[in-house]
Specification:
By secondary structure, the protein is mainly α. It contains five helices and no strands.
Length: 107
């Protein structure tokens, strides 16, 4: 995570605890909703599902200044929009890894 929790709290004008809660909610939702649907879309080669779920992850991550996750999701979204799913599993794995690293910074 490029931006520290403290920097994000200052940027958003909220308490550190609120930032941790927002990021935790993002991670929980993404892990329980977006990622299962995303991997299902990848496995079924459904570019529209992949595009929509990647878009959702991109926007939420961007709002929380999780730039690496947002960038990966953006790449996945653009690829899916053009029907290219060849490297989707690799990008998906990278998103998972970045999310794991973010979660570790919260504990």
């Amino acid at each position: 995570m490029m931006t520290t929790i403290e920097e994000l709290a200052e940027e958003l004008g909220i308490d550190r605890e609120d930032v941790v809660e927002f990021i935790s909610v993002f991670l929980d939702y993404t892990e329980n909703e977006d990622l299962p649907a995303l991997i299902d879309g990848i496995n079924k080669k459904d570019a529209e599902v992949v595009r929509r779920r990647a878009h959702s992850i991109k926007g939420a991550a961007l709002n929380l200044m999780l730039s690496e996750i947002s960038s990966l999701a953006s790449q996945l979204e653009k690829n899916a929009a053009s029907g290219k799913l060849d490297d989707s599993l690799s990008i998906y794995a990278d998103i998972l890894e970045r999310m794991k690293l973010v979660r570790e910074t919260l504990t």
